[in-house]
Amino acid sequence: MTEKFTDYKWTKQLLKAIEEQGLVHPTPIQSAAFGPAFSGRDIVGIAQTGTGKTLAYLLPILRDLPFSQQKTPRVLIIVPTRELVEQVVEEIEKLTQFISIRTVPIYGGKNINTQKQIVHEGSDIIVATPGRLYDLALTGVLKLKDIQKLVIDECDEMLSLGFKTQLMNILALLPEKRQNFMFSATISPEVDQIADSHFQWTEKILVAAAGETHDHIVQNAYHLPNYYSKYNFLLRWMEKTPKKNRIMIFVKSKHTADLLFEDLDNEFPGYFGVIHSNKSQNFRNRMVDELKSDVTQGIIATDVFARGIDVEQVSHVINFDLPEQAELYLHRIGRTGRKGLKGTAISLVSPKEEVLLNMIKTYLKQSIVDQALPSDDLITEKLLPEEEEIDIHAAPTILQANHSIGSGGMFIKSTKIDKINIKPKQRKEQKKRRNRKKR
């Protein structure tokens, strides 16, 4: 018998919000987490992207969070990116439309003095990135002494982004008596170490082991030598693939994202948006909103978009460049095939990326199928400047300051350079000798 949300004990207001969202059956990670969470246990949950991890911790937390007028927060949710902060806050707002709960988002790129004022006015839930959260805690305006529930979401991503020090410092500021939640699509020894050191009475929930992907995502790879060959393939694919909904195209750098956006926008005006870390938060939010509202049909993005962004009905993920980590590949393709729908992931692989493809294939429990190109005329010798090989023999010779100039076996040292290298004291002595000779 399939479980329903109505099988669990919720407050009337929370149940009404669940029903208004059309939620009927909990996902496997939610079903596995609710019982231990209700009993007060710490939770470490591992599940694929798009399986409902956010509600797995939000619903138990909100069920047990009574109304309060105190100024200091009682719930702290830490996530790695600004986009995830916005997404979690959005989910909280949906679930608390019939509850009086004050939620404050905190992340970099915003005026810290404005955030100080908002924090000072009081909150129940703080959703934050670790860097700005720790900055505010150091000012003394944000006090974490009353935190009862801690959530660390996408912990492995936080560590890979270099937030380990901030995370450890934040944990040191929290009261020891609290309930902890840690959720991620992948796990690592460092994540296990954090749980072992700071969690107690832990329930580990493994819904998807590392390397397992969605069964309903078709994964194909096409081998192309350079940027413009990949671009030709993309144009042909766009023209020949009628059944496509929303498209995510992932690239390796901000430069490639802007270049590909400019090229595709010339062929398909207004079809794609672009997101990377040089774009402002308001711009990035607008790109996501335009995709969700079908103003655009796709987004070209760096890996800033690979984790946690909830856009439904993405039919295709295209890896224009392969990521350097197998886990990032999983997060990328996790944008499609969500909530049981079928999806397709296409990887365009250059010769230099073959080693990355083999690494990803080794990591995965399912295979990526190498496909033949639909036509040889897609291949072009046209290269980007950065793809051209440098001829070291054509490069000019640059002499160092202490380089000896000579021919054959004779070396004549530059007297000018000798003078430059003379210390002040030596120069003064040489001047005295010259004056004596003149006399």
Concise summary:
It is built from 16 helices and 16 strands. It is an alpha/beta fold. Helix 3 crosses helix 4.
Which key phrases capture this entry?
single chain, 439 residues, alpha/beta, Rossmann fold, 2 domains, seven-stranded parallel sheet, globular
Descriptive report:
There is one protein chain. The protein is α/β, with parallel strands linked by helices and 439 residues long. It folds into two domains: 5-206, 3-Layer(aba) Sandwich (Rossmann fold), CATH 3.40.50.300; 217-380, P-loop containing nucleotide triphosphate hydrolases (Rossmann fold, 3-Layer(aba) Sandwich). The protein has 16 helices and 16 strands. It has a seven-stranded parallel sheet, with helices on both faces. A seven-stranded parallel sheet has the order 10-11-9-12-13-8-14, sandwiched between helices. A two-stranded antiparallel sheet has the order 15-16. The longest helix has 15 residues, at 424-438.
